[in-house]
Each structure stands twice: as C-alpha cells, then as structure tokens.
Input
Amino acid sequence: MKGGRINRLKLHLAGETGQVEACDKAPEEVHFKMKQNREETRLKKRKTEHAIGNEEQTQRGQPRSVVVASQKGTNNGSFDNYFLPRTTPGSQPTIKSVLQTKEVVEKCDLALAKWFIAASIPFNAANSPYFQSAVDALCCMGAGYKAPSIHDLRGPLLNKWVDETKKKIEKYREIWKTTGCTLMVDGWTDGVRRTLINILVYCPKGTIFIKSVDASGASKTGEMLFKLFKEVVLYIGPENVVQIVTDNAANYVAAGRLLEKEFPGLYWSPCATHCINLMFQDIGKLPEVKEAIPHATNVTKYVYNHCYPLYLMRKFTHGREILCPAPTRFATNFIALQSILSQKNALRAMVTSQEWTTSAYAKDAKAKQFVEQVLNTNFWTACADIVKLTEPLVRVLRLVDSEDKPAMGFLYRNMYKAREEMVKRFSLEFEKHKSTTSGLIDVIEKYARNNHELRAKLNIETSIFRNSEGDFGRKSAIEARNSPFPDEWCELYGCQAPHLQKLAIRVLSQTCSSSGCERNWSVFEHIH
Output
C-alpha cells in the first residue's frame, strides 16, 4: 500500500483497484462490508454537502429543504463491525476475543447453558451443524441485536427455511435424472401404537425425506401399499426411479411386484439389512447357539446387576465392557458374543483372583453359578465357533446398516467375501458366477426393454468390459477396480462403453438397504 490513511486501507479491503492493490486474502464478506461502508460514507458526504448548500440558500433568503440523515447501517465508529467472528474451530480469533477474561467467557457459556436448560433443549442439540453457525452469526451482529420472536420463528423464518429446503430438493431432482434414485420404505409402530410408514429417496448425493404416512386406520394390504408407492413414484418421476427397497413382509413383496408390472423399468428389492437379519435368525435356531446365548446373557446380567463384581470386571478388563451397545439394531446377540469372548481371559482371571475368592460375594449361590459358567470350557469353545462363523456376516451387516454409502457393488463384493470366509469354497472369477451373469442379462433386458438397438450395444460393451479392452484394460483402470465407489470407477473409465457406463452408474450408485428410514424415529413421530 506504501502509506496512506484509513481510506486507502478501506479501498484495499474492498477490493477496489486503481489507487491501491486489492487484497486477495480478505473473504467476500469483508469486501462486501467495506464496499457498503464506502457507499455509506459517500452518501453521508453528499448529505452533508446538501445540508451546507441548504444553509447557504437559507442565508440568501431561499427556502430550506429538510434532510433526514439515516443512521441505519452505520458502524457507529466500531471497526469490529466489518469482520465476521472467528469462533469456529481452527480459525483465527479476533483481538477482542483473545483479550476477554476467563470470567467473561464463562459468563457467556453459562448464559447459553441456562437457555438450554430452561427451555428443556436436549444437550446433544449442541452437536447440530447449525449451532456453531448461529453463534457465529450472533457474534457478527454485535451488541444490541434482538432475537426473533416466537411469531417470527413460527411464521416468516420457518417459511423461509422451507423455501430453502425446497430449492435444495430441486437440485436433488436434477441429480436423480443422471444417477437414478432408490425409494426406501419402512413401516414401524410408534410409542402410542400408531402404524407409520416412512418413505425416503436415496441417491449418491444424499437421502431426502418424502413423507411419513399414518396407516393406523387402513388395512396394509399389498394393493393399499401399491397405491401409496405409485403416488410417490409418479411424484419423483418413473424414469428416475431405479428400484424400491422394502422389508420382506408379504404385503410389501406384493406391492413391489405390482409396481414392477405398472412401471416395467423399476425393480423391487428386499432390504439387505432385513435379509441378513433373517440369516442371523436362522443361525440362532441352531442348538449350539440356542444354548450359548442364554449362557452369555446370564454372565453379563450377573456382572452388571452387582456393584462389586462390576468393579472387579472393569479392573481386570482395564475399563473395557462386556456388554457393548450394538452399532446396529440387528444381530445384537452375536455382537454380544464377540464382546464377551474378547474378555474371556480377563473374566477367568477375575473369578480365580484373591480379591474375588475372599469377598462376601463368592459365598453366594448365584455367584457360585456365575463362576461355574465363566470357567465352563464347553461354553467358550461354542462361543468361539459361533463368533468364527458369524463375524464375517456381522461385518457385512455393519456395512449395509451404516450411515455411509451402502451401494450395490459393496454388498455384492462383501457378501461373497463373507461367504468365502465362512465356507472356504468360493471362487472370485466372474465367469463362474452363473447367477450373476444371468442377473446381468436380466438387468440389460429390463433397462433396454423394447429398444433392440440399445440392447445390442449393451451386449457389445459388456464384452469390451469383460475382455478389458480399450480404457478398461488400462493399468490405472485395472488397479482401481476395487475402489471404494464402483459407480465412480465406471464414470471415470467407461468412456468407451457409454451405454454400459450409464447403466452401471444407475445400478451401482443405489443403496441396498432401507434402514435409513428407521433413523430419527422421534422426528418422524413428531410429524404426526
């Protein structure tokens, strides 16, 4: 800048070239605020000149015009008003915030805490991504800002956010045209025994809520569900819907089949999470499992229902628990077996320690039964066998029931990988997957329908892919085949097979589970 007064500094921060070089590090909001300040300064100057002119005219006997100076938007001499607060983690703090005493910071924290507590706001609301941004906006306003009233919140401000959400959904609709989307459906019963059906739409960009229907007064027949789903498909656009995913209940299966007849390009798919849960249900019927699970339950119940045994257990396991909350709602028993098996040595050391044998608990009849169960070799052998069998399947369940992207390609690869681990007889060669080859032909026929030319092109491009010809044979493409996102791999390397590329992206980018409908049940319940 080479010297100059405050005006040159403002020009520099406003990004106005000519007299000074524009600042390339100042954020856009600073540019805007400085330009706004310069406009206010010019306006104030013009009003001052106009007022002087009026005064001179009055002195010459001419009528005086009235000038009302607006104070709105002025900075009242505070330079801090032109900068956004630095309250987000990792950002540079303001000089003012650095100089604040510990007492002032604690007073501010306490004020926020009082509001949370007095309004009965759950403390985990502080984890909302909007919480810190709201604090930032408040700091930006400075002292004197009046919070919106209840009428503002439930009226114009609510409507404004609804409008913003609608605009966001419109952007998703554009994505649906490219990648296609999946209807996710789940029925459940809330705390007051209402039967609710949640419907969401998944695409690689994210999942959005469509509607939640109170079906308590209706018979949930396949025909009734079909009409409900048909309405949603027409709203989304039949050409955009690749599949509908529901659980395996007979009425949902019937509704799915009716949808396939109504919309030939659409698939009904059973929820992968529910399917794997049924597998665990069948495994749970095996005699060895039926005997081992109650045994493990008795061990954990005794420990967690008595203070001293719980204290000793945590001491010998170095603070680790044997009753872990399952990260998934399904397969809880098998995850619990994994947890207790990992602490086998610690539990056996605990019940044979002097601290246990000399305690008053050791003489109790229930405690003796607990010790006998912990030292039972047959139980631990059975537990190890069950975990060895089910652990690969649990990993697949974690994948399809997670918040991450549970896409088709992931399920196929991991399901067969789990099967290989469990059965030790699966071949990874694609040509030997007879059911997969047959399924691919089914998908091509359904996608192309009556378009014979498209079907022929897809079959040709499938051969190019299988034989690793063109871009599919490039070293980078071969190395990236097992990349995290198979649909993205097809987008990058499928340029020589554009029709197969489009089909692959539509299929591989879809979810294979409807478990997303089961999250935030309390929110869905509030809708009704």
The beta strands are 181-189, 195-203, 206-214, 241-246, 267-270. Residues 177 and 240 are 6 Å apart (CA to CA). Confidence is low (pLDDT under 50) at residues 62-85, 428-433. The chain has five domains: 6-82, 95-141, 180-271+514-527, 286-387, 427-508.
